[in-house]
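G.,

No rush on this.
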Amino acid sequence: GLAVMPVLEYGGSDMLPPEARAVAADGDAYPPVRRSATGRDITDSVDVCHPAVQDDARALVREIVTSLTDEQKSVLRPLILRRRAEFLSTAYNDATLQRFLGETGRTCPATAPAEVRAWIVSTCHDAYRRWYQSNLLAFAAAVQQEYAQHAHQADGPALYYHWRQPGMPFEGVYFQTAEAWTDHWSRVRCVPFEGFPLPAINADMLV
């Protein structure tokens, strides 16, 4: 029989508040994607630690799956959350940085948001990346849980397709100069696997 494993590439809906959009390590927003067909700039990076993001993703999945007929639902299998472009880049939003400090018991000597961000990047960046990626995988599991509630034969672990070689966190793959792409990013954008089954991934592997 037919089995379908849907792929979700989630970058947030227009319902998200501005503060749910991801901020890069330099404090600037990740650049938007410009759709050539319409000329519209689309912001597609989210901070998975912002509470509105999980609610938004779950609502999107729920709306899609509940619109299907029972026959269509019958072929659905576990959802694949596919990481692509800037969609789920590591976010350095002020509230998320403060949450990291609180949950890991670190004390930052600075108080200004820009200085806190700079301190974390300079002193404990890998620890922050691991912490953030663990939250990303928890987000993927929550989205899969919502999906499985409505696609009744789709129970199973969340399948997360990192789109890139493990060990490379997603931070600004796109919008690079040709020289930077040739010298560095073309090697980073290296997928060692295609197809299924997907390998098991944990937060350490993503850093």
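When you get to it, here's the other one too:
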Amino acid sequence: LPEEYIIKIEKLILPDTFFTPDYLEKLPLSEIAWQTLEQIIYYYPRLTLVEYGDYEGYGSRITQAKRAGLLPASILTKVCCHGSKTQIEKVHNIWSDLWLHNLMYEEKISIELADIINFPTEYIYKLYLMSGHDIDINKLKMLRLPFTYRTNLNNIHYRAIDTLIFFGKRHFFKGYAHFTEALKILLSKDLLTSIKQIILLGPKFDCM
């Protein structure tokens, strides 16, 4: 694409590069994603991978287009399963409203029809299986931890822990309530004497 059509700082190509706002307002997000990609592949013929998240099923129409032969076989689709409405339903321990079911179905399609299915945790993978997702084991790819560590810990001496870190949104379904409750228990038992700092990495929510 010409450089003026790309947002330079983020290097993003947005749907309104190709379509008018009035047209986009009539389409579901999954259809916008597909129609935008349909335009992009003409500008980037060497494109080999399309990656998307599972949340809200943005990639459902893209995977259906691939299955129907509207995308070349040389382009692979990859979904990263960070947590869909199925996972949110589990966290809240309450069934989703009926109007969300179609969206959850799109999420399911975007996962099952992808060429590569990435999971960051065993928990999400097993939750999706228990929820009825048909996940082809040959497409499955578990993401490794972002660090390496030794499994043989014999003869290794560590100093006392002086820092606790919470990484993620400060929201109950991200475990923040459990983190703060654990701190209360440790304080009540006088087990935080060596702790010098507690670091919170992530946005704050008013409900917490």
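The helical segments are 21-25, 29-43, 60-67, 85-92, 101-112, 122-130, 176-188. The longest strand covers residues 49-53.

Enjoy the weekend,
O.
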